[in-house]
């Protein structure tokens, strides 16, 4: 695999290295299209995956080593940000988030953005958002169709977007909210072909790209208007993420308007479909597990937030929304006995690690109790939000939102599954979602 050498000889490590059944570009395509199936097949220690083309987020054009053992995962997350770069792995989504986004930045630029954005996601900040998120969750759940099968994914996409628009961007104007509900999905629901084409100037005048770029221009203009209005209202006028970003100052340094636009684009792109998909899996699973559903409903009525959080976390273990967390190497490194050359990448496989029986006995069973008590799974075994200095900045926000939505769902409805069996996991752009949109039936509770 390019410069990636598998050691031979008496190290005893060679046996822990697996190769994709089909190497080369075909292997990459298979990996991207059938990730859930392949992930199950590849349970093992370290799995080198050969890639030739830049085909998707997180995969280097030269080669990617996929790891999932706790020591190797630790090495990925503890790698120096000077040589282990996440930003370059996400380069493909730059048109969606702008080049000033922390997601695609590395080194000092990334560290600086992170410092300036973090104050908007502290526990004190989250407490101030909680009432608004709770109200939006309740309003949404009350509107669910009852007594017939519906796709949970559609409802969840709507509400997680609404939460970001109101709680992160601070939008209150109804016309602007309506416009953003159309614009954001138009920008994110983009095929890999269109996404890759956006990097080629020559394609930009052609229809799919021209239309997409016009939507992005409009989106940026709306964000600029939002920022200008917040500035005019002055500090302390509102309690939303944007207001905190406007106030953020580290050693006299502040985010410029262009940077604010980039970070806001990032927060919506990284935050809404991911949480929507995690919640869709959760409702899908609970509808098929009446015992866990009853237990969780009891927790919801008793205000037992620890149990509700454990249910959310266990669902994220079984159905990780993002399959890989990647870093590109600017210098050669060795990991799991495998040499990785500069220019190649290493990806920690969330979906493989989450099924490691050493950390999760009977890994296929849904058992929230794993996340209760004094010894929760280590950060190298359960990492749906990545790890190290790049760990998802919205993780606590997302967990809060999920808990509040779950609470209202359980208090309002009994969930049942249509006669069809559980849905398959299917790759949707970058997330892995139930293949039929998470179909369930909600019946109003009588008691
Ligand atoms: C279930 C929901 C979510 C999942 C599974 C998820 C997962 C992830 C993962 C795996 C990463 C990469 C971490 C790494 O490279 O180590 C990430 C980064 C990020 N996420 Fe999330 N995320 C979720 C929700 C959110 C929300 C709600 C927000 C914002 C409101 C958000 C904002 C971000 C940002 C800004 C980054 C980039 C962090 C950095 O580069 O320093 N995410 N997320």
TrEMBL record:
Cofactors (names): heme
Ranges for region Disordered: 1-20
Gene3D superfamilies on file: Cytochrome P450
Family annotation (SUPFAM superfamilies): Cytochrome P450
Coiled coil region boundaries: none
Cited InterPro entries: Cyt_P450, Cyt_P450_CS, Cyt_P450_E_grp-I, Cyt_P450_sf, Cytochrome_P450_monoxygenase
Pfam families listed in its UniProt record: p450
Keywords in alphabetical order: Heme, Iron, Metal-binding, Monooxygenase, Oxidoreductase
Family: Belongs to the cytochrome P450 family.
Name this polypeptide is given: Cytochrome P450 135A1
Species per Swiss-Prot/TrEMBL record: Streptomyces daghestanicus
């Amino acid at each position: 695999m390019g410069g990636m050498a598998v050691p031979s000889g008496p190290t005893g490590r060679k046996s822990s290295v697996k190769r994709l059944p089909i190497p080369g570009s075909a292997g990459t395509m298979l990996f991207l299209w059938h990730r859930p199936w392949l992930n199950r097949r590849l349970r093992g220690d370290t799995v080198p995956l050969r890639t030739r083309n830049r085909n998707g987020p997180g995969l280097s054009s030269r080669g990617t080593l996929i790891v999932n053992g706790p020591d190797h995962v630790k090495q990925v997350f503890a790698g120096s940000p000077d040589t282990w770069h996440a930003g370059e792995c996400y380069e493909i989504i730059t048109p969606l988030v702008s080049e000033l986004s922390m997601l695609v930045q590395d080194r000092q630029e990334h560290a600086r953005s992170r410092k300036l954005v973090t104050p908007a996601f502290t526990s004190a900040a989250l407490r101030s958002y909680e009432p608004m998120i709770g109200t939006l969750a309740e309003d949404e759940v009350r509107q669910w169709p009852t007594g017939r099968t519906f796709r949970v994914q559609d409802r969840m996409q709507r509400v997680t977007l609404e939460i970001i628009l109101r709680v992160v961007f601070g939008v209150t104007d109804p016309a602007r909210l309506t416009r953003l509900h159309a614009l954001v999905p138009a920008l994110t629901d983009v095929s890999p072909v269109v996404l890759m084409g956006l990097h080629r100037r020559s394609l930009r005048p052609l229809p799919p790209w021209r239309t997409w770029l016009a939507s992005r221009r409009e989106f940026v203009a709306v964000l600029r208007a939002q920022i200008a209005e917040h500035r005019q209202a002055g500090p302390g006028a509102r309690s939303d993420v944007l207001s905190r970003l406007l106030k953020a100052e580290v050693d006299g340094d502040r985010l410029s308007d262009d940077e604010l636009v980039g970070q806001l684009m990032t927060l919506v792109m990284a935050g809404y479909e991911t949480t929507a998909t995690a919640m869709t899996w959760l409702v899908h699973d609970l509808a098929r597990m009446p015992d866990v559903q009853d237990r969780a409903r009891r927790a919801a009525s008793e205000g037992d937030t620890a149990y509700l959080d454990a249910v959310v976390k266990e669902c994220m273990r079984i159905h990780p929304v993002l399959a890989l967390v990647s870093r590109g190497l600017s210098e050669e490194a060795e990991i799991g006995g495998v040499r990785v050359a500069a220019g190649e990448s290493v990806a920690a496989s969330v979906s493989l690690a989450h099924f490691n029986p050493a950390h999760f006995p009977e890994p296929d069973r849904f058992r929230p109790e794993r996340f209760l008590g004094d010894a929760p799974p280590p950060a190298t075994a359960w990492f749906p939000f990545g790890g190290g200095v790049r760990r998802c900045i919205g993780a606590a926000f997302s967990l809060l939102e999920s808990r509040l939505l779950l609470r209202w769902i359980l208090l309002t409805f009994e969930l049942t599954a249509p006669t069809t069996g559980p849905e398959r996991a299917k790759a949707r752009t970058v997330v892995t979602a139930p293949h039929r949109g998470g179909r369930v039936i909600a019946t109003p509770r009588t008691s």
